[in-house]
Design a protein that fits this description.
1 helix, eight-stranded antiparallel beta barrel, Lipocalin, 16 strands
C-alpha cells in the first residue's frame, strides 16, 4: 500500500513540474491582458513605457499595504504611478495604473499583470484576471482589519478532500477536512483551525480572515496541494484511517 501511495505522490509531483513548465511557456507567449485592461498604458510593452503615468494623489490605492498572511510582505503604491512590493530582503519595483472597471495593471521588469481590486475599509483584495483562484488581501498601514471570519459552509460529502491526511514524510503532521466546512492542520498540541471550501476547482482555506488559495490533486490515497499565492510551495499528504496516537 505504501509503495502505491508514494508512487502516486511521485506521479502527481511530476505532473506539477510539467504543469509549471507549461504555465511558464504559456505565460511567456500570451499577449498582454488588453481585453481586460484596455487603457493605452496597458497595451504598451515595458520598453515603451519609460515614464509611469501620474495618479491622483488621493487615489484609494496610494499608500502602504501589508499582506494579511505575513506582515513582512508589503505593497507600496506611489501617486506618481510607481511602486514597490516584496519582503524586506527582496524588493521588486513596478509601475501601475487602474481603469474605471476597478482593474489594476502592474508592469514589472519581466511581465504585465492584471488584477481586479476591491477596497473595503482598510482591506485591499486583489483577484488575478489571469490565474483563476489567485487572491491576495492586504491591510492598509495604520488601518484595522474589520472583516469577520466566514461561517463554515457544509461541503459535498463526496469530496475526495474530506478525511484525515498525514504529511507524507511525517504523518504526525495532520491536515483534516471535515464535511461541515471546518478543519485544522498541524502537529498535536499546535493546531491551526480553519474553514474551507472549493471554488472553481481550487481549495480555499480561511484562517481567521486570511485566505489561502491552493490547487489540489487527489490520486488514490495521495493528496498534493500547490499554493496559488507562493510559487513553488506545495505539500504532499497520504490518507489516514485515524488520527495518529499523539492526538487526543
Amino acid at each position: 500500500m505504501k509503495k502505491s501511495i508514494y508512487l502516486a505522490l511521485t506521479i502527481v509531483f511530476a505532473f506539477l513540474l510539467a504543469s509549471a513548465s507549461m504555465a511558464n511557456t504559456v505565460q511567456a507567449s500570451e499577449p498582454s491582458d488588453a481585453a481586460t485592461y484596455t487603457t493605452e498604458y496597458a497595451t504598451k510593452s515595458t520598453e515603451e513605457t519609460e515614464s509611469p503615468p501620474n495618479i491622483e494623489q488621493d487615489h484609494p490605492l496610494v499608500g502602504t499595504w501589508t499582506w494579511d498572511m505575513s506582515d513582512s510582505y508589503v505593497y507600496i503604491f506611489n501617486a506618481n504611478g510607481t511602486g514597490t512590493r516584496g519582503f524586506e530582503n527582496y524588493i521588486e519595483e513596478f509601475t501601475w495604473q487602474t481603469t474605471v472597471q476597478n482593474n489594476l495593471g502592474i508592469i514589472t521588469s519581466t511581465e504585465t499583470e492584471s488584477w481586479r481590486y476591491v477596497i473595503d475599509g482598510s482591506v485591499l483584495t486583489l483577484d488575478s484576471l489571469r490565474h483563476t483562484g489567485t487572491t491576495f488581501s492586504y491591510i492598509r498601514d495604520g488601518g484595522i482589519d474589520t472583516r469577520t471570519p466566514p461561517q463554515p459552509v457544509a461541503q459535498d460529502e463526496n469530496s475526495p478532500l474530506i478525511g484525515i491526511w498525514g504529511m507524507y514524510f511525517d504523518t504526525s503532521f495532520v491536515q483534516y477536512f471535515n464535511a461541515d466546512g471546518t478543519g485544522f492542520y498541524g502537529f498535536p498540541g499546535n493546531l491551526t483551525h480553519f474553514t474551507w471550501t472549493v471554488e472553481d476547482d481550487n481549495l480555499r482555506i480561511t484562517i481567521g480572515t486570511a485566505l489561502e488559495s491552493w490547487s489540489y490533486y487527489v490520486i488514490d490515497d495521495a493528496l498534493i496541494i500547490n499554493s496559488l499565492q507562493l510559487g513553488g510551495v506545495w505539500h504532499g499528504f497520504v490518507r489516514l484511517n485515524e488520527f495518529p496516537k499523539q492526538f487526543p
